[in-house]
Write a structure and sequence with these properties.
This protein is an alpha+beta fold. Helices cover 29% and strands 21% of the residues.
Length: 206
């Protein structure tokens, strides 16, 4: 399975004004540093949460045979209301499919999936597909979808934003001296930060 972000988020989950108020940092004179701090803290929070915060578009590609094997035919035929297994849509919060799933050949052609159904009954979203047995070596199933809490920072839960701001403050205090900003590869998740993020963390199977 491979994942590729097709559309970047339009904004950051916390604003420069938030950083100035929370961290007492002059965002105007240190704009480049503040943006770097926010991006680093956001990436760390998203990695821990298994979520993307601001609306963005992703594409998942995978072996269609695997997708077919994990799909629930009874669920596809609407004989059940909750699917068994299925292909987990990575990250979240899931918003919507951008288009119908397709199967792509090695030669570049594509065809729509015969039938599919999304199981959104739980926090995790699963895709079930029926490919009609028409697959060839080298084929890939492509699924394009949108995730995120919304288009704006106001859509992100306050606890997550507070955790990001706390991470920003910690990174700022640990920055290198002499104008050379060196941040830890993996910012430390303190108990305070974890307590803010943990209620929103997604269990990941893939």
């Amino acid at each position: 399975m491979a994942l590729k972000r097709l559309t970047e988020p339009a904004t950051l989950p916390v604003s420069f004004e938030d950083v100035e108020e929370f961290c007492k940092i002059n965002a105007e004179t240190e704009e480049s540093l503040v943006r770097q701090l926010i991006e680093t803290a956001t990436q760390s929070a998203e990695a821990y949460l298994g979520r993307h915060l601001i609306r963005q578009r992703w594409q998942m590609t995978m072996n269609p045979v695997f997708a077919q094997a994990w799909s629930d035919i009874d669920y596809l035929s609407y004989e059940t209301t909750v699917g068994n297994k299925g292909v987990q849509i990575p990250h979240g919060p899931f918003q919507e499919l951008d288009s119908d799933p397709v199967v792509r050949s090695e030669k570049g052609s594509s065809r729509p999936v015969k039938s599919y159904r999304l199981d959104t009954s739980g926090e995790q979203v699963y895709l079930h597909v029926d490919l009609g047995g028409e697959t060839a070596p080298g084929d890939l199933l492509a699924v394009t979808y949108w995730v995120g809490y919304g288009d704006h920072s106001d859509d992100v839960p306050e606890s997550i934003k507070t955790a990001i701001l706390t991470l920003v403050l910690n990174l700022y205090q640990e920055r290198g001296a002499g104008g050379k900003y060196r941040f830890p590869l993996f910012p430390v998740m303190t108990p305070q930060i974890l307590s803010l993020l943990s209620p929103f963390r997604m269990d990941r199977i893939l």
